[in-house]
Design goal:
The complex is a heterodimer of chains A (about 625) and B (about 200). Chain A has about 625 residues and is α/β, with parallel strands linked by helices. Chain A is about 40% helix and about 15% strand. By secondary structure, chain B is α/β, with parallel strands linked by helices. Helices cover about 40% and strands about 15% of the residues of chain B. In chain B, helix 1 packs across helix 7 and helix 6 packs parallel to helix 8. The radius of gyration of chain B is 16 Å and the shape is globular. The two termini of chain B are about 25 Å apart. The chains are: A alpha/beta (about 625), B alpha/beta (about 200). The interface between A and B is large, with 62 and 59 residues.
């Protein structure tokens, strides 16, 4: 087998890499040893690419950790032991890791230590669009931000040298379009790090009790000052001054990350790239004060082009004030650009046109628009979550009540949409059980309170909340939808599958044992195959009616993984059909169950199975009350 | 001829192979020595949702996103998705559409109407006169694998002469990216697409 290009030690070779693969390549080139993370869009491919690389570079040691806090600590343990280390996560993952991050920032890095935060403006796959640059400011940790796949590779490679030179952590911030955009990347050399690895018994540094932390805090501030001075020479910051005027004024722009790349495109669109001053930041914090001062002195108007919060804009305004330039130069940002969402490319054009009085006509929109109803993401054909939520609905109907379905982060969150409308809360990882603890104190007399979450989410942060419910005797039913994978982010394994990131066999953690270890009584534990709908409805009703902390495990392998496995083993899946004679066109299977493989033919007023997408799970057979759906025999 | 800025949008439904198609073209653009960028839909939107991915190449590009009205070509693997993203096209844009409509299953329970091919065609003709419908799904089914639709549509695009990437580069890219088992059938689909592309363009001349 030939080796994949992205692991070749071939400096100068130009290849296509996804942003996340480019980051992984930079990490490989830097001679990193330890990597850990928790899957989360848009960050996931960074670690899985490194797991591929590990096959060829066995010195690498990467793992999916149980959550982002543990991932950060795994990496930081590596740094303490003189190994170059990193942790990667999506933006909200840093909320989980922040406890460790805030204090590790005091003790700093020994082996180069980089924390990658993949932010998600526009919430493409997230519950919020928080701007994690504030975490860098909050922890006084420098923030690097790349604008192209090439720069992502180069900048993260450099980040490990920087981290060791200044003994500092580095926060490497990306956004979705960097992570999930491909580009041509010229490879560099894969470094061989020759050093002694091992733990450093320096208690005054690693034991952060008050007397040590006061000293460490002082050192952190000193370090930040040194980095701040260096920021003006930082190799990925650049200032280009132009003294030309556009419509009578000299213009300057400040940008980093994807907005920098899009800004360049927009300036090229108007052919004015050479006529304006541009400060490009590869490190957005601490800011290069001297460069900013130079820019402010040379122009009449500055526009800071940044998505989300006015982070750089506020820094500029502060420096302008300190330097007595506040009256000399106009600083614009959020007065021209929105504070929410990703900036679409045409927004740059419209904004530049508005700012500099340039000619630009927006695209004309036809008068009679054709409205296309939304195509929302949905649970896949054969998805076991559908049958779990359908079972819940059936029991609610029978008991003539509504459960409070406190839910969580995962594919199953898609059950919020019609027709299942099966969940009532989603805040953050593990919150289903935490919230249910509180809701049950008020509501359990009136409505049963369910906490519904997936296997990986349960491992991530559901366990402490379950123990909390046991200890405090909060009356909840925890439903674990165990589909044996972390599906939404790309089917990563987790402790429940026992397979490691490298696909080697690890040790499996049995959810049933774990739950009982948390103090849930054996008679309050149910395990059912999600696709066995009659059994599920029967047992789930028992579970709803029982008292105390109950755990119901609804288990069936993710249908996408299952179908791939069947294809690989050339196993034929059952053919499911609908007998048009028996179908009454009642729409139960379409409007209440909602499997995308069941299609309603308006003309005939009959339901029909789309054989191309049907996975043959057969759950709909039990949904139909007219016995019209059947499994074709003889296959 | 130097290409400064070629902008292509591929739209479709999660699972139709939009990302694979983008990947094939991206690598092919590299083989033809272009600077190249993409922006792709991964994650949550892939679960049967609407998918739109950008491909840009040429010497004058920097970022991955395309401004509305600035696509030279739109390739729609599903017909109604071409309407959803219509404003990326303008009167010069060539739009190639697989004439199959996939009605989202949620439409029925939301009690909404879904447009038909005639509505779609009529609407898009207001944007550009270069609208081409292809029976891509039907052809892919005839070949015995509906999942070859994406490669067939790439063939249509290449055959139309509206893509400044060489056939050799795309074929080489397909060799690298498509698993061995499926290479033969994809080659056939690609050729079929090229024929169709050549044919629909010859019709307008």
């Amino acid at each position: 087998m030939s080796i994949p290009q992205f692991v070749e030690n071939a400096p100068g070779l130009r290849i296509i890499l996804l942003g996340n693969e480019a980051i992984a390549r930079g990490i490989l080139e830097a001679g990193v040893v330890i990597g850990a993370g928790y899957p989360g869009t848009p960050s996931s491919e960074i670690l899985s690419t490194l797991a591929e690389m590990q096959k060829y570079y066995p010195n690498l040691k990467v793992e999916w950790s149980i959550n982002e806090k543990v991932a950060f600590e795994v990496a930081y343990g590596g740094s303490m032991s003189n190994a170059r280390s990193f942790a990667s996560m999506k933006h909200v993952g840093l909320n989980v890791a922040s406890d460790a991050f805030m204090t590790a920032a005091y003790a700093g890095a020994r082996g180069g230590m980089v924390l990658i935060s993949a932010d998600d403006p526009s919430c493409y796959s997230s519950q919020n669009e928080q701007d994690n640059r504030y975490f860098g400011l909050h922890a006084l940790v420098p923030i690097f931000e790349p604008s192209t796949p090439q720069e992502a590779k180069d900048l993260i490679k450099y980040a490990f040298d920087f981290s060791e030179d200044f003994q500092t952590l580095v926060l490497f911030r990306t956004t979705t379009r960097l992570n999930h955009g491909r580009g041509d990347v010229v490879l560099g050399e894969i470094k061989k790090i020759d050093r002694e690895y091992g733990f450093d018994w320096d208690r005054s540094r690693w034991v952060c009790l008050p007397s040590h932390s006061r000293v460490l805090r002082f050192k952190l501030l000193e370090r930040l000052q040194e980095i701040s001075d260096f920021a003006n020479e930082f190799p990925y910051n650049s200032l280009k001054i132009s003294d030309e005027k556009i419509n009578g004024k000299r213009y300057g722009f400040v940008a980093a990350g994807i907005p920098y790349a899009q800004l360049i495109d927009a300036l090229n669109f108007f052919n004015i790239r050479e006529k304006v001053s541009i400060l490009k930041l590869g490190m957005v914090f601490p800011p290069p004060k001297r460069l900013i001062k130079e820019l402010l002195k040379e122009v009449d108007r500055v526009l800071v082009v940044e998505e989300l919060e006015p982070f750089i804009e506020n820094i500029l305004k502060q420096i302008a004030y300190e330097e007595g330039l506040a009256k000399e130069v106009e600083i614009h940002g959020k007065d021209f650009l929105p504070q929410n969402g990703e900036f679409p490319a045409e927004l740059y054009l419209e904004t530049l046109a508005g700012l500099m009085d340039l000619e630009y006509a927006s695209v004309a929109v036809p008068n009679d628009l054709l409205i296309i109803p939304p195509r929302l993401p949905i649970l896949c054909p054969g998805c076991s979550h559908r049958s779990s939520f359908y079972a819940i609905k059936q029991i609610e109907k029978k008991m003539k009540t509504k459960f409070v379905n406190s839910s969580d982060i995962g594919c199953y969150t898609l059950a919020v949409y019609k027709p299942l409308e099966g969940l009532d809360t989603e805040i953050c990882m593990g919150a289903s059980i935490g919230l249910a603890n509180g809701i049950s104190k008020i509501q359990s007399e009136k409505n049963p309170v369910l906490a519904i979450l997936g296997d990986s989410t349960f491992f991530h942060s559901g366990i402490p909340a379950l123990i909390n419910a046991v200890h405090n005797q909060n009356d909840i039913l925890v439903m674990i939808l165990d589909n044996r994978a972390t599906s939404m982010t790309g089917f990563q394994d987790n402790p429940g599958t026992g397979i490691k990131i490298t696909k080697e066999i690890g040790t499996r953690v049995i959810i049933e044992d774990l739950v009982q270890g948390c103090g849930v009584k054996k008679e309050n534990l149910w395990v059912v195959d999600s696709n066995n709908l009659p059994e599920m409805i029967e047992k789930l009703e028992d579970a709803v009616n029982a008292k105390g902390v109950r755990v119901f495990i609804s288990r069936h392998k993710c249908s996408l993984l299952e179908i791939n496995e069947f294809r690989l083993k050339q196993i034929k899946t059952p053919i499911i059909k609908i007998d048009p004679e028996k179908c009454k066109g009642c729409l139960l299977c379409v409007d209440k169950f909602g499997c995308p493989s069941i299609i309603f033919k308006e003309r005939e007023k009959k339901a029909h199975i789309d054989q191309e997408s049907c996975r043959g799970c057969g759950v709909c057979i039990d949904v139909c009350i007219h016995d019209a759906i059947y499994k074709e025999e003889g296959e | 001829m130097e290409i400064r800025n070629f902008n292509l949008l591929i739209v479709g439904v999660g699972g139709q192979g939009v990302i694979s198609a983008i990947q094939i073209l991206t690598k092919a653009a590299l083989f033809d020595n272009y600077k190249v960028r993409t922006a792709e839909t991964h994650g949550m939107a892939q679960r049967g949702g609407s998918v739109a991915s950008f491909l840009r190449f040429g010497s004058g590009i920097e970022g991955p996103l395309i401004a509305k009205g600035n696509c030279q070509v739109v390739l729609a693997f599903e017909a109604s998705e071409a309407v959803r993203y219509f404003n990326y096209a303008d009167s010069n844009t060539f739009i190639f559409i697989n004439n199959k409509i996939i009605v989202p299953p949620t439409v029925h329970s939301m009690d909404m109407e879904y447009p038909n091919i005639e509505n779609i065609q009529k609407f898009l003709h207001q944007i550009s006169s270069n609208i081409f419908l292809v029976n891509g799904h039907e052809e892919a089914l005839k070949l015995g694998n509906p999942r070859t639709l994406n490669v067939l549509m790439l063939g249509v695009l290449l055959g139309s002469g509206k893509l400044p990437i060489s056939r050799e580069a795309i074929e080489k890219s397909m060799m690298v990216l498509i698993p061995k088992k499926y290479q033969k059938i994809n080659e056939i689909a690609f050729k079929k697409g090229i024929e169709k592309g050549k044919f629909i363009i010859s019709e307008i001349k």
